[in-house]
Design a protein that fits this description.
The complex is a heterotrimer of chains A (476), B (300) and C (403).
Chain A lengths: L2 H8 L2 H6 L6 E4 L6 H10 L4 H16 L24 E3 L15 H10 L1 H8 L2 E6 L2 E7 L1 H5 L3 E4 H7 L1 H7 L11 H9 L4 E5 L9 E6 L6 E2 L2 E6 L4 E9 L7 E3 L2 E6 L4 E9 L4 E4 L1 E6 L4 E8 L4 E4 L2 E4 L5 E10 L4 E10 L5 E10 L4 E10 L6 E11 L5 E10 L4 E11 L2 H9 L4 H17 L4 H16 L4
Parallel strand pairs in A: 3-7, 6-9, 7-10, 8-11, 9-12, 10-13, 11-14, 12-15, 13-16, 14-17, 15-18, 16-19, 17-20, 18-20, 19-21, 20-22, 21-23, 22-24, 23-25
Antiparallel strand pairs in A: 1-2, 3-4, 5-6
Helix pairs in contact in A: 3-4, 4-10, 8-9, 11-12, 12-13
Chain B lengths: L2 E11 L2 E15 L3 E5 L6 H9 L4 E11 L15 E3 L5 H7 L1 E4 L11 H20 L2 H9 L10 H4 L4 H14 L17 H15 L3 E5 L7 H16 L4 E6 L12 E6 L2 E6 L1 H20 L3
Parallel strand pairs in B: 3-8, 3-9, 6-7, 7-8
Antiparallel strand pairs in B: 1-2, 1-4, 4-5, 9-10
Helix pairs in contact in B: 2-3, 7-8
Chain C lengths: L10 H10 L4 H13 L10 E2 L2 E2 L8 H4 L7 E6 L5 E4 H7 L1 H7 L10 H9 L2 E7 L4 E11 L3 E10 L4 E10 L7 E11 L4 E9 L4 E11 L4 E8 L4 E10 L5 E10 L4 E10 L5 E10 L4 E10 L6 E11 L5 E10 L4 E10 L3 H9 L4 H19 L3 H15 L2
Parallel strand pairs in C: 5-7, 6-8, 7-9, 8-10, 9-11, 10-12, 11-13, 12-14, 13-15, 14-16, 15-17, 16-18, 17-19, 18-20
Antiparallel strand pairs in C: 1-2, 3-6, 4-5
Helix pairs in contact in C: 1-2, 2-6, 7-8, 8-9
Classes of the chains: A alpha/beta (476), B alpha/beta (300), C alpha/beta (403).
Chain lengths: 476, 300, 403
């Protein structure tokens, strides 16, 4: 292992997630959702009129839509009382849109992200890094050499000001309109912060850009919006990490991600989600892939009380490719309902979905996935593999794939397995001198190995560490 | 005496126009002859075989593939105007009916279809298809005008159909000839066959269908020495007993110890670049394909 | 929902049907309860994905095809030595206690709108009763529907260590103008260490809307094997399922279908593992041609106390036409970790290489396709232990291919 990897591994992951800060903020909205709140947010951000209008329209749609309740086996959302959520907290920093010098951050925020390992991570292997504290980006930095090539990596609020035309064209229009689902509508009304990434034609950003999201206040909702536009022939890898400390009241995270992968472009979007176990994590993530484009989603869901996350790709252009890698770990009290959606809307498109889930101590995992192959999408192929591992009898593991095949010249395969940690395997390892915990850790590592080996190293290391912590049950 | 003639054949992959695989192949094979087609990987040998058999994945852009018949090949004499066929105009099964046989490098595994049913269907389909191909159109029109039903289903072809018992007999004979286990017949087509069994099966099918020209694609790969001998016996029998012409695509000299070719052709980059007698194969064995490359393009 | 209630369905009709069959009071009450529950019941569940219902049962126009008092059929019942195969009036006369014990015990009469409708209106029924240690081969029930609508009910009860093989066929006889409706509920109660093999072949006319629900429950060491062939009907919504209630019990559910024209098959295979050491094997293969659509849902549920469960599911669909559609959702719901479970599903067309291979042997495209489709069904046909059913199914498939 290289020294870089060692450094990454040494970051004290446990500490990174357990601590919490006294909240101190410059501006905080009242609980609940009213037109008044929306106007206040928009005004505080000094937004153009069209954005305010979009927010208000989304709010109306949100109020008209019912909560989703008719999905078989969906997580219990009855506790999610949107009137109890504080939708918007602006941290107390002077510069809007974040500072670009680490030392300019207020000490408590600096301390938080230090513990999360952000500055070290940036030094190592990233092209750019952004960090969001509560509702807004507090730190943003992009290496100069990328800026010179016209690559933009900035927070979403700044993008509304500085790249208004692009944002106006792409923001919650073609990819994730607020009408998509109730939480997308909510997001459209009260979104704040998030990242904007723009990669010009034929530009390859060869190191990942990373954003880190942190909720620190109780009863907080975080609604960051990420918009990635990869122009033809370009390539970028975006990593997001999320965390929050544990409070008694619930938090709500309802992010929105829109990715435009133009002709022959390649975008990888990786998430390590480790929200505190009182967080409802209800996201809408979607990509549109044009001719010959490749979209890759890598999602590790470790935290949250309930997650409903199904990154979706619309394979719109001929020869477009989608890859999904999903890893879910549900411990006590957790309901991780995650999966993938792929729409094959053009010929010669290809998708592969690999899902590994682990349920332990009464947790529930569910793979919920949809593959739709439209009439005319000939020579398309899809392959789905879901494997689940169960630790004990209090846990639940479900698998619910849906396949809609309207084209005959296709190759569709789905496979799933569920099994327990084999006593024989554990015994075998024990007989070689490992204790019970180490044996199980090793088996879990082996279980997810086939997909972690496909992951970027900085991501895989982080993920493995989190899983180990979960296994020890020491992560609050 | 049948003769397969390939002239200036160019072909590309059907859904990728930029990938050309055959760049002007010239080659001819006649009845009663065994030809070896050799060449390095990717030189276009297998593609040539598939194009001649009519695989839909390739598109011919130039050149011709013709089959000339003498007229005495089949049970009934062939009229003069039906002795030359442009194979490229025909469906794969029509080519088969005229006597083109392709032995696959990687034979399809077809679950649920037994060998015996499959081969009997194939044999009868061949007779039926021939009936249609050699049917005199004018006669047919006259017959139709006169109110006769000329559908081949009810004509003499149907009466001539090989029955189950008769076919079992034929199959058993061929299996003995090739020293093949009886149980082959009731197994599903290639499903769960070992590599060697599959190759043996390809030769067995050729023996049953008695082709005019058999193209055998890497029939010798993946065989142990005993099977290689059995397969070779089968190939020699095709020429010596059935009078078939054989185009044997191979990578290695090894099989040529058991099957002596009348001619050897060498392919390189989508063309036949060398031809000669059996000694050419030995030369190749000694000098390797780099020698061919040098001879073709001058010193590298 | 609940807008389906047939305006002309009355208590009097239900009383008349029950009276005709000389039913005891409790059964009449059950029927009347089902009738009055109709307005509160939903259609059987169908799969919904964003923007799409996989089967739209709410669009069924019951007005046009339910004709409760005019049920007409030809029925052929072949009994086997030692077993009793009784028409419904005899069943309630001779085995009232048995019927009362088991009727509605596996399938809740008010599980959904269509089961309640069937309960209220069934005018023909069969009891297959196999006493202890009797081995009954070749029980046959053939139903030929002659009327616009027909509601059919079947109860199978095997006592300890009994065994029975039942072959059921449904088809349509006399032609009727317009749409038709067939509804069949089958309950199978397998006693300790007994074995039920139930094969069904549905070949109703293509004007028929078909709802069938076959469900069994196993006692300790019992086995229930279902074979379900669907060839006919315009729209079929069917569930074939087993509750593995007894420890060490087993089930196999084998299905085959062949849809063409604008047929719509919505086929559910379900198993609930409740007992310990239970085993399930679900196998489904089908073909869709023309503009036909198949919808498959397979559910393997493993309960909290179902220790040492083995559960397998395979589904394969072959699409013969570009205008057809094949939807599938194989689900695993596992609450006990001491489980080995898997499922797999594939959708595809005839393999081009396979087809080419056959063409090079001189077989024409049409017969090559037919051989390949027939070959595709072989793995499920091999699972069918009832020889007569296997032959019938093979014949129907061959006939459809050569239409």
């Amino acid at each position: 292992m290289s020294s870089e990897q060692e450094d990454l591994k040494e970051t004290d992951t446990e500490e990174r997630f357990a601590f919490k800060k006294e909240e101190s903020s410059a501006f905080k909205t009242e609980k609940g959702l009213t037109e008044e709140t929306i106007r206040l947010i928009s005004e505080d951000k000094d937004e153009p009129e069209w954005m305010l209008e979009r927010r208000l329209r989304a709010l109306r749609q949100f109020k008209e839509m019912p909560m989703p309740t008719d999905w078989p086996g969906q997580p219990d959302l009855s506790e999610v009382d949107l009137d109890e959520i504080v939708p918007y907290i602006r941290p107390d920093i002077d510069t809007r849109g974040g500072v670009d010098e680490w030392d300019d951050l207020p000490e408590d925020i600096q301390d938080t992200f230090d513990k999360l390992g952000i500055p070290e991570a940036e030094k190592k292997a990233l092209s750019g890094v952004g960090a969001q504290y509560e509702s807004e980006i507090v730190y943003q930095n992009m290496q100069e050499r990328w800026e010179e090539k016209g690559v933009v990596f900035c927070d979403m609020d700044r993008a509304v000001q500085e790249h208004e035309e692009i944002v106006r064209e792409y923001f919650m229009t073609k990819c994730v309109p607020p009408s998509d689902n109730k939480f997308a509508a909510l997001h459209g009304a009260i979104w704040s912060g998030g990242s904007f990434v723009y990669v010009p034609e034929d530009t390859t950003v060869d190191m990942p850009v990373q954003a880190y999201f942190r909720m620190n206040s109780e009863g907080m909702g975080q609604f960051e919006h990420t918009l990635i536009i990869a122009e033809p022939g370009s390539e970028v890898h975006y990593i997001e990490g999320c965390s929050a400390p544990q409070y008694a009241a619930f938090n709500l995270h309802s992010g929105g991600v829109e990715v435009f992968v133009k002709e022959d472009a390649h975008v990888q979007y990786s998430t390590v989600q480790n929200w505190s176990k009182n967080t409802y994590n209800l996201n809408t993530k979607r990509a549109i892939a044009e001719n010959g484009a490749t979209m890759e989603w890598v999602s590790g869901s470790m935290g949250s009380k309930a997650t409903m996350l199904y990154p979706s790709t619309i394979l719109k252009g001929r020869g477009a490719t989608d890859n999904h890698i999903t890893i879910a770990f549900a411990g006590e009290g957790q309901d991780i309902d995650t999966g993938a959606k792929v729409y094959h809307n053009a010929p010669n498109t290809k998708s592969t979905i690999e899902s590994k889930s682990i349920a332990k101590d009464g947790g529930r995992t569910n793979y919920r996935g949809l593959v739709h192959i439209a009439d005319g999408a000939e020579n398309s192929s899809t392959s789905v593999e879901c494997d689940a591992l169960m630790f004990d009898n209090d846990s639940t593991s479900d698998t619910m794939p849906y396949m809609e095949i309207q084209e005959s010249k296709v190759d569709v395969a789905h496979e799933a397995t569920v099994g327990k940690i084999g006593d024989e395997d554990v015994f075998y390892l024990q007989s070689r001198g490992l204790d019970d915990d180490d044996a199980k850790k090793m088996i879990v590592a082996g279980f997810i190995e086939p997909i972690t080996e496909e992951l970027p190293i900085e991501y895989a290391v982080e993920l493995n560490r989190l899983i180990e912590l979960e296994m020890e049950g020491s992560l609050g | 005496m049948a003769r397969l003639e390939i002239r200036n054949l160019h072909a590309e992959v059907a859904d990728d126009e930029e990938e050309t695989i055959l760049e002007g192949v010239d080659l001819a094979v006649e009845s009663d002859e065994i030809h070896a087609l050799m060449g390095p990987n990717g030189s276009g040998k297998s593609t040539l075989a598939k194009v001649v058999a009519g695989h839909p994945a390739y598109r011919v852009t130039e050149g011709e593939v013709t089959l000339h018949l003498d007229g005495d090949e089949f049970d009934e004499p062939i009229p003069e105007d039906k002795r030359t066929w442009d194979l490229l105009d025909l469906e794969p099964n029509e080519r088969a009916a005229l006597g083109i046989y392709l032995g696959f490098q990687y034979p399809a595994e077809i679950e649920g279809v037994t060998m015996v049913n499959f081969l009997r269907t194939a044999l009868n389909a061949k007779f039926e298809e021939r009936e249609e191909l050699f049917e005199d159109e004018e006669d047919e029109e006259e017959a139709e005008e006169a109110g006769y039903d000329t559908s081949p289903m009810e004509g003499p072809a149907d009466e001539g159909e090989v029955g189950v018992a008769q076919f079992q007999e034929i199959l058993r004979g061929k299996m003995e000839l090739l020293d093949i286990d009886d149980r082959f017949a009731d197994r599903y087509l290639n499903a769960g066959f070992s590599g060697g069994e599959k190759k043996q099966n390809e030769v067995l099918q050729a023996a049953v269908l008695e082709p005019e020209i058999a193209i055998l694609d890497e029939i010798d790969s993946g065989l142990d020495i005993d099977r290689l001998r059995d397969v070779s016996t089968g190939i020699n029998a095709l020429r010596d007993e059935e009078g078939s012409g054989v185009l044997m695509i191979t990578h290695y000299q090894r099989i040529l110890d058991y099957v002596e070719p009348d001619r050897v052709h060498v392919m390189l980059d989508g063309q036949v670049v060398m031809e000669g007698g059996p000694d050419l194969a030995e030369k190749l064995e000694d000098k390797g394909y780099d020698w061919v490359r040098e001879e073709t393009y001058g010193t590298a | 929902m609940s807008t389906q209630v047939h305006a002309n369905l009355t208590e009097e009709q239900v009383r008349a049907i029950s009276d005709e069959l000389d039913e005891p009071e409790w059964l009449l009450e059950t029927r009347l309860d089902a009738l009055s529950a109709l307005s509160d019941l939903d259609m059987p569940k169908v799969i919904r994905t964003p923007g799409r219902d996989w089967t739209n049962l709410d669009a069924l126009d019951f007005e046009s095809f339910v004709d409760p008092l005019e049920g007409a059929e030809q029925k052929e019942r072949v009994t086997a030595e030692g077993a009793e195969v009784l028409e419904w009036s005899e069943a309630v006369a001779e085995h009232e206690a048995l019927v009362r014990e088991h009727f509605g015990s596996v399938v809740d009469t008010q599980e959904n709108y269509l089961t309640a409708l069937s309960t209220a209106l069934f005018s023909t029924g069969t009891l297959v009763y196999v006493p202890e240690r009797v081995d009954a081969e070749d029980v046959k029930i053939r139903t030929t529907v002659d009327s616009r609508s027909l509601f059919n009910y079947t109860l199978v009860v095997t006592e300890t260590s009994a065994s029975v093989t039942i072959l059921e066929r449904q088809s349509t006889g006399d032609e009727v103008e317009g749409d038709r409706y067939y509804s069949g509920i089958v309950e199978a109660v397998a006693g300790e260490n007994s074995r039920i093999q139930y094969g069904a072949l549905q070949n109703l006319s293509e004007e028929t809307y078909n709802y069938t629900l076959k469900r069994g429950r196993t006692d300790v060491y019992a086995t229930i094997n279902w074979i379900d062939g669907n060839i006919g009907s315009r729209l079929t919504k069917t569930e074939v399922s087993t509750e593995l209630a007894g420890d060490s019990s087993e089930t196999q559910i084998v299905g085959a279908f062949f849809g063409h024209d604008d047929q719509h098959f919505d086929l559910d295979s379900k198993v609930w593992h409740y007992g310990e050491h239970t085993t399930a094997d679900l196998v489904m293969r089908g073909v869709v041609d023309d503009t036909a659509r198949s919808v498959y849902e397979g559910v393997q549920y493993v309960g909290d106390d179902a220790w040492n469960t083995s559960s397998y599911q395979r589904e394969n669909t072959l699409m013969l036409s570009d205008e057809s559609e094949a939807d599938a959702s194989p689900k695993l719901e596992i609450d006990n970790h001491d489980t080995e479970a898997s499922h797999s599903a594939t959708v595809g067309q005839i393999d081009e290489e396979d087809l080419f291979y056959m063409l090079t042997r001189g077989i024409d495209r049409e017969s090559a396709r037919n051989q390949l489709v027939e070959g595709f069904f072989v793995p499920v046909l091999d699972e069918v232990e009832v020889g007569e059913l296997r032959a019938d199914l093979r014949e129907l498939i061959a006939a459809r291919l050569r239409e």
